[in-house]
Each structure stands twice: as structure tokens, then as C-alpha cells.
Amino acid sequence: MAMILDAFVPMLGRMVADAVKERLDMLLGVPGEMERLEVTLEDLVNVLGDAEMKRITDTAVDAWVRELKDVMYDADDVLDQRRMEACGGDAPKRSFPGVGCCVPLFTCFRDPVLAHDMAAQIKELNRRLESVRRRSSMFRFVSASSSSVPLRQQPASTSNGKTSSVIVHADLVGEKIEQDANALVEALTTDDQRENVIVVGITGAGGIGKTTLSKRVFADQRVRDEFDLRVWVCVSQDVNEADLLWSVMVGAGGGHHHHHDATPDRSSLEPALQRGVSGKKVLLVLDDVWSEVAWNEVLQNAFRAGARGGTRVLVTTRKVTVARQMKAVHIHWVKKLKPEDGWRLLKNQVVLGRNPTDIENFKDIGMEIVTRCDCLPLAIKTVGGLLCTKERTSRDWEEVSRSAACLLGSIVRLHKLRALHIKGASWNSLEELGHLSQLSLLYLSNLEKARTSSVAKKPNLQGKHHLRYLSLECTTRIGSGSQIKDNIQQDKHQIEDVFEELCPPTCLENLSLLGFFGHQLPKWMSSGKMALKYLRSIKLEDCTNCEQLPALGHLLSLDFLLIKHAPSITRIGNEFFRSSNVTQMNQQMLFPRLEKLGFDRLDGWEEWIWGKELEQAMPNIFSLKITKCKLKYFSPGLVHQTRALKELIISEACNLTSVANFLLLSDLHLYANPTRNAC
After folding, report:
1. Residue 229 belongs to what H/E stretch?
2. pLDDT at 539
3. Ramachandran bin of 279, using left for φ above 0, alpha for ψ from -120 to 50, beta for the remaining angles
4. How many independent structural domains does the chain possess?
5. Do 148 and 136 belong together in one domain?
6. Based on the number of CB atoms within 10 Å of its own CB, is 298 exposed (0-12), middle (13-18) or buried (19 or more)?
7. End of a domain among 115, 141, 167?
8. How far, in Å, CA of 346 to CA of 367, rounded?
9. In the chain, which stretches have pLDDT less than 70?
10. I need a labelling partner for 16 at 20 to 30 A (CA). Which of 54, 208, 268, 499 fits?
């Protein structure tokens, strides 16, 4: 069957391509339908190889392939029938596998009646093919074309969350995505002689539709015509340079030089990639990029040395700083859907293959679901998938709507739970966390109730490779008037041990610690081993007994840091920038991306030491906020270094008498401070 489909789909695609070239879409009266059929067929043939392998052990995939085969045969029958009618009833030779048709397709449409019938059948074929392709996303097939390449060591048979270039037309809703796509196509195809390779970025929050937009651009006919080669790679977080080079090299047509199970190193892969793109005008899509290293340090040299002028890199990333570090000349921000477009997207998830007319009866509930999903496409599609399993009754839809209000957690089975808040750290509640491998958002509060550190081992946080946000909380020990209460020494040691066992995974992006009442914050925060290399945001609040901040300067992705209500800290020095066990570190690698820094209500803080060894630290900081402290002066080293500082906010700094020499400030805010000089 694989041979039949592999031969037939390209053949049918070529026939449709010829039809498009001859502008038969105008004769048929179905503008765009022929091109849509061509693109759909191309996408389907690209995943056939993986589908044929998976169907051996997966009955659902087998059923999918059989349905695709049925549609293909029906399509062939349609073409044969029309050619017979055009030839006066003489049946032409069977056109597959791989045999050209005996009658030019153009001659089949001179009769307006035949053209009208053909148009209706092509629309129906597109509907059925769209249904088949839409369900293909459930199986996460790996594309065999250069358009979409799997990373090595990521077996095709596993659901690893990687994206592909295959576009689902049901996901394209509203005029905004077309406007955005047109703007990006223009940015990618406009002549620019500054460099032979130029980067364009798409950024926005997770689930907002960056990948869908990039797929739309990738499939655009103008893009297809402009570039000699189009390569799509999902980068994600945990990928090494050899995997990335291999993936792009295969996309560029160079994979046959290396076996898939071999382990070539960069020294052989980089030249192979350069040869693969040599003299070609390439569009490279890097989807879901978390660090500029993927381009700046791994792929860039091969492309700049080999690719022809006009080559473009389209990167999607949640972090605008990544696009900027890649020197993107144009950055497009993806915004949330409009409510009406959100409703259209929700409808598209549930109406395909079913009667669409009655869906409008549920619009009020549907709009409520869209609102609860915050108009985020990924959340809407998730809920839409659940609605497909429900009956079309108000009761079922209202039940799903209520579920959507609970962080979407209760709409999936427990082992796929994405968000969870556990209040009260009992042995049972923390042990059960160990089985929840898909969590991306986790709140643990009342951790003072965990009486032994062994309890804190139960959640196995380091094994949660999807965890992005973690909040560890104790009940605050700060009473009225900022007085510290319940100051029991035994409890302090206990909470230190508990927090030490709650070490998060490498993939963590946001960390919040509230109410920690130990003397020393967890050692894993100060690790110099790149343990938290993706951590972007840290908030430490109500750390009542901490006398020293942890060393955080090694966190290469950190761009936001807030220390709030830490009354026991009196001094901040080198220990804040690097751990004592780190003897050497590039000064520019100390807080290299930190942009916003806040010290709020450090009531006992008197001194901030900034020596010469820190003269290049925090090179990108632009906002500094200091409130309610006893700081006496700003170190000259600090004043000299923070050349990027644009915003300085100082409030209730009772001992600070002068704010001087911050020459590049654009915003200076002073509140409730004693009389001082500011210049």
C-alpha cells in the first residue's frame, strides 16, 4: 500500500500543479481550491513514510492510512470519470502508479456543465482531505521532506511535543492572521542587500499562535516561489548542537551522507550543512527557540558561508530577547485572538465531519469558554478537542465550560495535568505529585507543614521536564509592623532541608519563593553548573531570616529579579554575583541578561559593595527599584557600570543623601526620601 500511495499522491499532485499553472481554477469557478488541494496532497505525502511504519503497531494509524487511501482512490475516480466524458466515453488508461494521464486535464473543462460538477467534487475532496490531515496531528507524524525534520535521538514513534510544518487550515481564523502573514511574507521576500542571511522574528506568549502563523507563512505560495529550499526545524529546549546541525543538514538534503544512528560531531556536520545550502536561497524556520545559541553559535556560520544572498531565518520564540540577540531586523508580536475569532476557532475544532448548522445554538456557552481560555488559541483547541468527545447538549458544553475555568486542568486525565496547586504539604499529597509528569505550572503552599525532608523528595520535581513555573510557599512569619514571629531555631533548619529537596528541573523558567524562614536559601539556586540555565524570572518574598542573598549571577537567562521584604539583609556584595566555589568567571557572564532588578523593603540593608571585579556585570540592566532601606550611598563601581540604566526608582531610603552621576537616566523617581541631591 505504501508503494501505491507514494506513487499516486505525487502523481495527483503534479496533475493539480499543471492545472493550477493553466489557471483551471478560474475555469472551474473555485479560486484557490486547486492550490489548496495541491498543498494538502504535498503535506500528506510527506508523512506517508512515517505513517506506514507506525500503522504496523498502531491500529488507529492503520485506520487513518486506510481512510487516506479511500480518498485517494475516490480522487482518481473523479479524474478518470471526467477524462472519460471529455474523450467521448472512452476510458483512459489507469493513471496510477506513476503513469501520466492520456488526456490533458485542461480538455476536461471546456464543457461548463462538466466544470461545474468537477468544482463540486473538488470541494468535497478538499473537505475530506482536510479532515484526514487534521487528524494526522494526533499521531505526530515525522515529515520526510526537507520542510520538517525530526531531531536525532527523538524517535518518530513517540509523542515528544515537537512541531512540524504541516498546516491545519481549521486553525487559521480571522483576518488578523492573514494580515500578519502578509506582513511577514513581505519582510522575508523584500530585497535587502545588507547581508546574505537576515533574521526575522515572531514572538509572543506560549500557546498564542506563533507556530500556526509561521506555518501559514511557510506554506505561502509567494514564499515557495521565492526560495530554492525551505527547511523547518523545531528546536525546543533540550537539544545539543550535533542534533541541531544534523536536523538542518537533512532538511537541506545532506542527510544521506550520514546514518541516522551514527553520532558525527560538529567538525563533520558543519561542513556538510554548508555544502547542503551552498549557492541556494534558503528559508530556515527555527520554531520554539529558547536560546540564541541555536543560531548564533551553531547554525549561523554554515549559512553565512554557504547560502546565497536573500536567505532568511524565521524564528519563533517566547522571549523577545532571543530574537534581538539573533539580530532580527524585524520582530512581529503575536496578539491574542479577538473573541469572535476565538469562537470560530472553537467551532472549527468540533464541526468538521458533523452537521455545522446547529453549532450556533451553543454560541453563548462557546463565547464563555473562549473568555475563560483568555482567547489563547492553544487553550481553545484543547477545550475543542474535549468538546469533540461530548454530545451536543447545553449540559455537556456547560460542564466543559466550568472545567475550563480551573486552569484547564480538569479537562484532561490526571497524568496529563498541566497545572496544580497543593495547599498543605502532607505526605500523601506530595507523594502523588511524583506521577504527574506533564505539569507545567505548580504551586506548593504551606510547606512549613512538611515535617521531614524525606517528604519533600516525593514530588520528584527534577523529573518533570515540562515544568515552567514553580512557586514554593510557606505561611508568612512577618506580623504587623514587620515584626518576625514564631522564630523557632528547629523550624528554620527543617525548612532549609525541605526546600533543598525541592530542586526544580533544568527547563524551569519562573521561580517564586514566598515566606521562606530559614537562614540559608537552597544551594541549588547558587549552583554554578548551569542547572537552571533557562530560568528567566525570580521572586523572593518574605525571606525573614536570610542574612545573605544567594549567588545568582551565573543564571544566563535571568531577566527579572525581585527581592521583597527581607529585613535581615544588611549587606550585598560579591556573594550575590557568584558563588565562593567559582574561582573564575567571565565578568560579562554575571547577570548577562538581567533587565529589571528590584529591592523592596529590605529594612536593614545599609551597604551595596560593587568592586572593580564587577565592572562589567549586569550589562543590560535598564530598570532598578529600591524601596524602604537604610542604604547610605551608591558605589562608584555601580554608577559607572550601569550605563544601560534608564529607569531608577528610589522610595523611603532614609539614609541616602545623594543620587549622582547616573548620566544616561531617562526616568528618575524619588518618593518619601529625606532631602538629597539628585543629578
Report:
1. strand 229-236
2. 93
3. left
4. 4
5. no
6. buried
7. 141
8. 9
9. 1-35, 38, 42, 45-46, 49-50, 52-59, 73, 75-116, 137-168, 170, 236-239, 254-264, 352-357, 389, 403-406, 408-436, 478-490, 528-530, 580-588, 641-642, 675-679
10. 54
Threshold 0.90, pTM exceeds: no
Q: What is the CA angle 239-244-246, rounded to 5?
A: 135
Do both 133 and 259 map to the same domain?
Answer: no
State the Cα–Cα distance between residues 613 and 647, nearest whole angstrom.
Answer: 24
Rounded-to-integer distance, Cα 485 and Cα 479, Å: 7
Assess if residue 234 is contained within a domain: yes
Same domain flag for 287 and 146: yes
Per-residue buried b or exposed e for 539-569, using 16+ beta carbons within 10 Å of the residue's own CB:
bbbbbbbbebbbbbbbbbbbbbbbbbbbbbb
Classify burial at 269, counting beta carbons within 10 Å of its beta carbon; exposed 0-12, middle 13-18, buried 19 or more: buried
Quick one: which of 346, 413, 411, 342 has its CA closest to 381?
346
Instruction: Based on the fold, state whether residues 663 and 565 are members of the same structural domain.
Output: yes
| Predicted pLDDT at 164 | 63
By the 10 Å C-beta count (0-12 exposed, 13-18 middle, 19+ buried), 637 is classed as middle
Lookup: cell for 440: 507545567
Type of residue found at 613? E
CA triple 577-580-582, angle to 5 deg: 80
Instruction: Indicate whether 428 belongs to any domain.
Output: no
CB burial string 596-619: b at 16+ within 10 A, e below: ebbbbbbbebeebebeeebeebbb
Q: Which of 335, 367, 393 is the last residue of a domain?
A: 335
Question: Which residue carries 564587577 as its cell?
Answer: 614
Residue of 535, 502, 499 whose CA lies nearest to 516: 499
Domain of residue 259, CATH code: 3.40.50.300
Based on the domain organization, do 440 and 375 belong to the same domain? Answer: no
Domain that holds residue 169: 142-335
Best CA proximity match to 445, nearest among 468, 429, 461: 429
CATH of the domain at 597: 3.80.10.10
Give the number of other CB atoms < 10 A from CB of residue 218: 25
User: How high is the pLDDT of residue 409?
Assistant: 60
Cell numbers standing for residue 372: 475563560
CA-based end-to-end distance of the chain: 79
- Residue type, position 139, single letter: F
Q: For residues 379 and 373, is the Cβ–Cβ distance under 8 A?
A: yes
The whole-number pLDDT of residue 327 equals: 92
Query: Cell match 530574537: residue?
Result: 323
Q: Are residues 263 and 344 in the same domain?
A: no
Rg from Cα positions in the chain: 30
Residue 136: burial class (beta carbons within 10 Å; 0-12, 13-18, 19+):
buried
User: What pLDDT does residue 115 have?
Assistant: 64
Asked if the structure places residue 430 within a domain, the reply is no
Same domain, 13 and 159: no
Q: Are residues 449 and 591 located together in one domain of the fold?
A: yes
Strand order across the 311-317 sheet: 229-236, 282-289, 311-317, 197-203, 330-333
Nine-digit cell string for 363: 454560541
* Maximum Cα–Cα distance across the chain: 101
pLDDT at position 52 is: 60
Sign of CA dihedral 563, 569, 573, 579: negative
HSE-up (13 A, CA, CB side) for residue 596: 8
Euclidean distance between CA atoms 540 and 521, whole angstroms = 10
Query: What pLDDT score does 303 carry?
Result: 93
249 found inside a domain: yes
